[in-house]
From TrEMBL:
This is DgyrCDS5094. GO terms for biological process: cell-cell adhesion. InterPro entries: Cell_adhesion_signaling, Ig-like_dom, Ig-like_dom_sf, Ig-like_fold, Ig_sub. It is found in: Membrane. Residues 1-22 form the signal peptide. It is a single-pass type I membrane protein. It comes from Dimorphilus gyrociliatus. The lineage of its organism: Eukaryota, Metazoa, Spiralia, Lophotrochozoa, Annelida. Gene3D superfamilies: Immunoglobulins. PANTHER family: IRREGULAR CHIASM C-ROUGHEST PROTEIN-RELATED (PTHR11640:SF31), NEPHRIN (PTHR11640). Keywords: Disulfide bond, Glycoprotein, Immunoglobulin domain, Membrane, Signal, Transmembrane, Transmembrane helix. Residues 255-335, 340-414, 425-507 form the Ig-like domain. GO terms for molecular function: cell adhesion molecule binding.
Amino acid sequence: MKAASLLNLFFICLCFSIPLTGQQVNIVDPPRGDVVVENGKPVQVGCKVENCDNSCSAQLHKDQLMIWHKETGFYSPLKDELMFVGNENDGDFTIRIPKPSIKTDGFYKWKFIQRKNNKFQRPIETVAAYINVTIKPEKPVITSAEHDKLFLIKKRKEGVEKVEIFCTANLGKPPPVIRLQVGDNQPLLPTRSFSVASGISEEISKLHNVTAKFEIDLDRSLDNVRVTCTATNYATKQLGISLESSAVIKILSPPTIHIRQTPEGHVTENDTVTIECWSTSEPKVSVWRWKENSSSINIRTSTYKFIARRRYHTTKFSCFGDNRVDNASKSVVLMVQYPPRFLNDAKPVQINLTMSESVELNCKVDAYPTAIVYWTKDGRNVHAGESYRFTVDSPSKLGKYVCTAVSVRFPNVSRDMHVFQKHKPNIISKLTQTGEYKAKGSLTCTALAQPDPYRFIMLKNGKTVPVSSLDRLVSKVEKILGGAKYTLTFTELQSSDFGEYNCTVYNQLGSDWKLINFEETKSPDLKYILIGSMAGLLVVILLIVIIVSCKLRQHSSSGKVDKQAPVTISNCLLLTVTDSNASTTPMHVEPIKNVVDVDKKDTFPDDNICDLSNYSEHWDYSTYPGDFIYDQHYPDAIKQSYLPAARPDSRLSTNV
C-alpha cells in the first residue's frame, strides 16, 4: 500500500479521574486539535501525566488491542510503525509516527494505573485520541456507457439525446467528491454516486472507491469537446492539489450507406455490372457484407462486380456496412433485359392426332421486355398469344405451325410445331444403298409414323442381324420429324455384309416393311481417270492460246480506235488547215486551248475522239475550212472533227 498522502490526526482526549487514597495520575498535557501531515512526513503526538512513577503502570491500546506496555514495549503488528520519544519516568508518553499510513489509522487509548503492594489499584486513568489518516484518491478514470476503454459516444439518431458518463476515483479516504466539467461550462455534480469499500484487508477496507454518474445532453455541437473529471477530498484540499482526468467526446454515428449501380437503369444480359456502396458517417465502415435477395454472397469489399444473367432479373442486391457503432444496409433491384427464350423443349415439337380432335399448342417464352407471341401457318397469321387451341377438322389444319416471339430490343425467335394425323409406319428409305469394301459404311431405314415407331427389325437372309454379338456392328435409332430413322453402322465392311436386308417397322397403328439392297461400291478404272485429266488439261491450254491471240491482234491493228474508250481533252491536239488545198499545204499542229471545263470522261460516237462543239467561238471557220483532231493515243491516225460552222463536205485526209 502506498504511504498516506495526508495525515489528519483528530485527538479527542477523554480523562476519567476517580479519587484515590494517595497520589493520583493527572493528565497535564493531553493532545489537542488536528494535525495534517503530507505523505511520508513524520508526526508525533504528545501526552504527559503526573504522578506516574515506578509504581504506575502505563499501556497504549489501538482499536481495543494493546500495542504497548511500559514493562515490555511495543507489540506486533505496529512494532515498527510507532515509537515513544518522551521520558517515560518523567511521565512523558509522547509517540512518534515516522511514516503515517492506513495502518496507523485508528482509535488510540492510554491507560495509567497506580500500583500498591504490587497490586494495581483502581480507578484507571485513561486518555484517548482518534488518529484519522486521510489519503488522497488515485487519479480518476473517465468512461462512457457506450465504450469501456475509449471515450467514444454513439449518436444513434438526430436531435438531442441523453448520454451517461462515468468517473471513478479509487482508494481515497474519506470518500472523494467527483465533479465533471464539459468544455468551458461550470462543473456538474453527479446524478448519482456510488462509494464502495475496497474490502481486501481490514486496513484497505477503510479506503473508498467512488464512481459518479453524469447525464448530459448530447448533440453534434459537443463533437470533439473535452470533458474533465475532478476528484477531491480532505487530503487533496489540505495538500492544495487537484486530481483530474480528461477525455474528448467523439460522437460516432451509425453508418449512412449509399449505393450506385453501373451502368444505371436497365442492363442487358452479359453486360458487366458494378454495384458500389460507400458510407458518409464517422467512423467509416470497416466490415462489408452482401446478399442476393436473402442469400449471403462471399464478398467482403464495398464493390460487387459480376456479369448480368437473366436469372438476376429483379434480384435485390443489398450491401451491409458495420462501423463499430451499428450497421446499416442499402439495396438496389437489378433489371436485366434479355432476348426471348422458349421455356419448354426448344426442339421442333410434333403432335399426332386423329381428325376432328382438338389440340393445344403452347409456346411459353421468357423475355424482358415481355415478348409478343403469334402463330403462323403457311405464311399466314392464325393466332396471337402463347397458347393456340383449335380443332383439326380438315387436312388443311395439319402441317407446320410456327410460333414467333417478337421483342422490341432483340431479334425475333421462332420454333416449329408439327401437327400430324395418326397413321401406321411408311418406310421412305432408298431401296438401294451402297458401301465400300474394307471401309466404314452404314445402312439406314427411315420411316414416317404417328405415333413414333417403337420397334425396328433388320433381317438378312431371314435372320435378325446380330448387332449385339459383333463388335464391328452398331445400331442406333434416332427421332426425326414425323417418324424415326434406324441406322446400322459397319466399322469395316466385309463381303458378307452386302446383300438384301429386310427392314420392318412397328408402331401402335400397324407396321411396314421394305427390302433394301446393300451393294458394294466399285472403284473407278485408273485409265478413265487419266483420260479425263488429260482432256481437262488440253481444254485449259486451248483457252490460254485463244486469249493470247486475241490480245496480240488487238495491239497489231493500226489506225483503228476503240470507239468506246474514253479520251480526255488533254490528250488531243488541234490540226488546222490554212488553205483549201489541204493535200499540198503544210500542216500546223497546236494544243487545244481554253478547254478547262470539258468533261474529261466523255466518250464520243463515230470517229470523234475529242468533242470541241462547245468551243467553236475560238476559231474562225471562214479562214480555216476544216479543223482536225489529232489523238496522241494513236499517232498514226488523224480523225476529222467537224465544228458547227465547218462545211460537212470538205473532209480532208492527210498523214502527219
